[in-house]
Each structure stands twice: as structure tokens, then as C-alpha cells.
Amino acid sequence: MPPRSPLPQRHGLDAAWIRTPGVDVDGPQWETMRDFLSARLPAHAPVARMLEAGEFVDQAGRPWDGDEPYRPHTFVWFHRPLAPETAVPFPLDVLEVNDRFVVVDKPHFMATTPRGSHVQETALVKARLALDLPELAPAHRLDRLTAGVLVLSTRREYRGAYQGVFQSGLALKTYEAIAPYDAALEFPRRLTGRIEKRRGVMQSELVPGEPNAETLVELLETRGGHARYRLTPATGKTHQLRLQMADLGVPIVGDTLYPHVQEVEAGDFTRPLQLIARRLRFTDPIDGSRCDYSSKRRLVWPPEQPQVPQNV
What we know:
Structural class: alpha+beta
Shape: elongated
Number of strands: 13
Low-confidence stretches: none
Radius of gyration: 23 Å
Largest sheet: 11 strands, mixed
Number of domains: 2
CATH topology of the largest domain: Pseudouridine synthase
Mean pLDDT: 93
Order of helices and strands: EHHEEEHEEHEEEEEHEE
Strand content: 25-35%
CATH class of the largest domain: Alpha Beta
């Protein structure tokens, strides 16, 4: 882990950092810090302009001018230029704010934390700016396409305690989803299996081996060819609910990843995944109080297709 950043946040985002490697006779050699930064940062990064503006700093906050001799094992801090983003057209609702944590009701299509092309349009950045809480950090995560209850700790000294609640499985999470109805399937039923996620592969996979994922699925109501389900995961593997429901033969409505990957335009918000983290219950690790929060997000039933009469 790097030391504390010498730069303040900008637009709700922490400064980025890069650490220079040691001098290796068989590796690349750089004459100056400018040479190193130009080689290591993406080709589109405006290194020359940022150096001229003093936007690269050392651990003491002193700007690099780029002409210094290359210095190994040194941290360089800077703020990444922000690329334009398509605004998520749904609000981030706040359910609770106290001294130790914040609870939000995250909309569909909004990532939990900055990653890739989703930076400013994320729950973490929006909450930091709206509530003026620069040390806000997620206690757990929700998929970008999943809506619902999300907890963030307010300060560094509370971060480990609240993350521990979720890492240890002490939080009780229930989800609701709309998916096809299959009269041949009996509910409630418990789905178990081994889920693995390979680096660079979009989908998680169910593979042979000792189960590491478990979800209780309950049928709440039916409407024609679809049903509303309650999903209670006992584990938290990547895409667990989406993968298990697709494997059962009833993929969640609006899922563009399971069972098959579908191409979707970046700014298309017309088909939200019908999956919501509906309710979250846990015991506060600091004062022992019982916490219980519910999402107010709505699931949308798909229109039923009219039946076409069969010719006799």
C-alpha cells in the first residue's frame, strides 16, 4: 500500500500514484523522470502539459519538472485527466447518514466505485461530493447493473469495522428479481455450486469442485410467464445471483451477460437488470445496534406477449 497522498481529492476522486522501479541492467533505462512518465503512462496522457503545470508531485507534495535525473523506488502522485461520461439518468438516494456510515439506495447502471470508463458517475464519488465526506469508502459492493441498498463508511477509522461485517458474512442481504416462471421448478430451493471468475473474462463460471456459492431462492408471485423471486445469498461470489438463475433456466430479465453476452450501447439505459438488493440487516460493529434498511427501487414487469392462436 502506498503512503498517504500529498494531494487532496479533486472532484471527489483520490489522487493516482505510480512508483518507479529499481534500476535493472536488463530492463528499461530512463535518463529523466520525464522519460519514465512518458513511457509508463498511456500514450494519450498529456505528460508534457501536466509537468509544465506542476501536476506531478513527490511524496512531500513538491512538483516534478521532469528534468530531474531518474529516481528509483519513488512515488509520483497526480490526478488523472477526466474523460467525458454519460450521466446516469437516475438519482442516488440517501437512506441514512450518521457519524460512522452512510446508506444509499443505488440506481441501476451506476457503478459502486470508479473503474474503467465509470469514474464520476459512481455511487462513491457522487456521495462524497453531495455529503462533503471525502473519506467515504464502500463497506461492500453492488454490480453496476444491480440497484439497491449500499453501505459506505464515513472515515478511515471505521472502514475496517464495517467492511469486516460484510467480509465475514454477518450481514443478511436479500434481493428481489424478476425472471421467467417455470411451473416445473419447485420453490423454495437452494442453489449451490462452485463459481470461479477468470481474469479478462466477462462472465463468471460454474465449474466442477467443492461448492463455494449458495443462494436460497423463493417464489413470491407470478404474472403470466414471469415471476418475482426473493434471493438470499449465503455467499458473495461475483455475479452469483445472475449466474445461478441463468443456470437454473430462468435468467433475470434485462441481463445482458447471462446466459449469453449481448452488446449494449454505453448510453442505453432502457433495459435495466431487474435485480434489486432489497433489504440489508446487520449489527453495528461499533455500538451493537441493529440496523435494517430497505430499497425503495421498483422492479418492472415485462409486458406479456399475446398468445397467437394455433391453426387447427
